Give the backbone structure.
Amino acid sequence: MADIIATNETILVVGGGISGMTAALEAAEYGKQVILVEKEAGVGGRVSKLYKYFPKLCHPTCGQEINQRRIKMNPNVRLMTMTEVTEVSGEEGNYSVTLKTSPRYVNNNCTACGDCANAVEAEFDDEMNYGLGKRKGAYLPSRMSFPQQYVLDPRIIGTPDANAAKEACKYDAIDLDMQEESTSITVGAIVWATGWQPYDANKIQPYGYDRFDNVITSVEFERLMDPHGPTGGKLLRPSDGKEAKNIAFIQCAGSRDRNHLKHCSRICCMASLKQTTYVRERYGDDGKSTIYYIDIRAIDRIDNFFQNVKADETVTFIKSKVANIVENKENKNPVLRGVNTEGYDRYENEHDLVVLAVGMQPSVPAGDFPMNVVVNEHGFIEEDESNGGIFAAGCSADALDVNRAVQSATASALRAIQVVNRVAGTEG
Amino acid sequence: MSNLNQTMVEKYRNDFLNEVRANVEEGDWVNMCMQCGVCAGSCPLGPYWEHPPQEIFMMIRAGKREEVLTSTSMWMCTSCYNCIARCPRELPITHIMHGLAHYADRLGLAPKEQPTRKFANKFWDNLTKKGRVNELKLGLALYFMNGFMEGIKVAMANQKLGLNMIKTKRMNPMEIIGGHGVKDTSGLHAILKKAREIELAKAEEFKG
């Protein structure tokens, strides 16, 4: 990777999700040199795994396509995929950064024809679908992948599958000798946009995510709706593959709970409200959604959305934090138990499928950062002078929806631009 | 109305929440409840409670003094700790329930015939006398809890069990006269007196 030229006027953006892409593009379109590193094989992050996203309920393919095109067209952005930051030293205006790039085993000759995938037999859990489906050992991470290139799973390297893939390729695009590479660069400012991960639902023991097939998480539910997802866009429940029509959504699954995440994850109320519209989209009046909540936190202008969902007769709201879930052994239906705090009525409600609106926690646990940054009690990066030229964007800064994540990314890009401008002597 | 009850009513007027916060063990936590209902749903005896914990907390805030303190609800708590384990705000719900029950009893408002209350008082009196539980006396006190004839009946029914326990040295019939205790009984009583003083002083110091 000797062709990467970075100076202390370059901005490094870590993470190629919606926040990272936005920050990188804002800075690059302003005219700054940007290096965008992404750990996965393609950009897009969590948003690309959604069926639709706020604020406009677009399919991610739409917003994604625009961003990918902007990256492609802009010579100021250098995208490095399968790359992680391992070390950061130095100070504002002059950071030395070590990057580690894992081998893709596929070079730029790839046309994404898919012949290698056909030749390979090994299958693995599909990360794109949170493990709900399988993918081949040679795969395109998603249909929207950018760069549009296949990847070989390192687990097939050294097996006959790897050679089969190489032989199947008509373009000489597979290079089984690729090695992990380390790159050292100098940059002036860093935008940290490593995003979030869903809270581990196994830890919420009373809800039995680990014990009951028909208890899934909100991120998995998004994948069920995707026409190219594991169920071809049908809301099929995991236990028997039957259509789930009576669906419960449990709010604050792991959030606002001192036993789990102390903070309000902010997106889950809107996510569940949105997902009730999926149920309507699939079944019309035949579907049934029930939301169990402590209080609905539909923030500012999207309150309209809440009002619309409330008006939908197929959606019921029950003000209660569900105490526990048991399984009806006969039909594997989850049975929710608790007390409705409006009237103190005890309930025992059976549903086809339960969706846990899991909380948002930072992808990088506090203490695992390769640099010194101030992290708050929830693990999000605080705005602090001692962070120097390192600025958090999107969900590494707080639990944010797409709208706010993008705003946060733009703000961070602006701060990074100010730093490199100072370095260039054009400001201050 | 007991004197203490009269005093408390006058002292706190309509501010039952602060009365609880000041006088009930862990009562200050009542403020922290966010009414999610997980304690009520998690209680194994929940269906038998007049008012589940989360409802009690709301009633305290709403100033329903009489209804809360005369309720049998908090006497139903078996200390299984399910509510504490699940409470998203880590309220020590079990302890608050016992605190409320104890306070209601001190004021003389607790339901007289509530069996848990009766047993708790008998146990406490038995224990604090000598610092050791006198099982023979406690057992007999329980037999006669519901009247003399009833007591004779229960005692006769358990006669064989009692004799077997004596035979296997699980029970000492001599306990009926005096019974064993800690070495320093007056020291123990001094400790309990001091504890009560601290408890009362804490309530007095409470600023809200």
